Amino acid sequence: MKLDYGQLQALAAILHTGSFEAAAFEIGVTQSAISQRLKALEDRVGALLVHRGHPCTGTDAGRRLAAHSANIALLETNLAADFEAFVPPRGAPVRIAVNADSLATWFLSALASVEGLQYDLIVDDQEYSADWLRRGEVVAAVTSHDRAVSGCDCHTLGPLRYVATASPAFFTKHFPDGVTAEALATAPMLRFDRKDYLQSRWMEANFGCKLTPPSHRLPSSQGFVEACLLGLGWGMNPELLVKDHIEAGRLTPLLPDATYDTPLYWQSSRLLGEALIPLTRAVRRAAERCLPRG
After folding, report:
1. What is the mean pLDDT of residues 93-117?
2. Of 72, 80, 223, 248, which has fewest CB within 10 angstroms of its CB?
3. Which domains does the chain have, with CATH numbers?
């Protein structure tokens, strides 16, 4: 199927900005031109690509085509580095799926060290981020899967280490006789979202049983730490975020020698391998600096 890049650009702009008006401003054409390009593209592929609303959102087909457009722009930007006469297109974001705890600890330093790239980050659990690659909606992902997605290269990054932590006051109140399965069954727990099973896995690994304590759902890495500090509950926090709090006595490990490691891998599109080399190098360097070895 032969596609018109101007039409793809219009689609990508609509999904990026959330409206036809903002898309027209971003590209530098009229709103009518944006509408015409989208209609022509939908006619060409025979499918609805955009759910009209506030904001506009993409259908499955629309998101896939927008990702294809971003990949083309990234390849052209990379080519422009080799040909000075080439003018790189405006807005060629690299779409990446990354887990929230990596984003809150080590990943941003990798992005900041690469010049000339724009980023569009999708935040999802490390066990599910590879699904975005399989659907073709991102070009790279930080994931817990060590088996490369079809068409992707896979690099080991290292483990993100977690510590089960609570405030000293919370610990004294809920674990007066130490941390036991019975006490954990009633002590309020923090949970990031419905995909978060870290606390459950830590309890099963250390106490050999499945527990379902009362829990708060809190989808924020920094909020997780703050909630522990305030005594709202106990939770699994990245060691990188709580090390100073533990050393200062503001947080207490539930079991000092029972950390929990989640292995992380960087998977990226082989088709865009050349264009993504600087980013892949930066991600691996950042991981080597921040994540524990062995």
Report:
1. 94
2. 248
3. 1-91 (1.10.10.10), 160-261 (3.40.190.10)
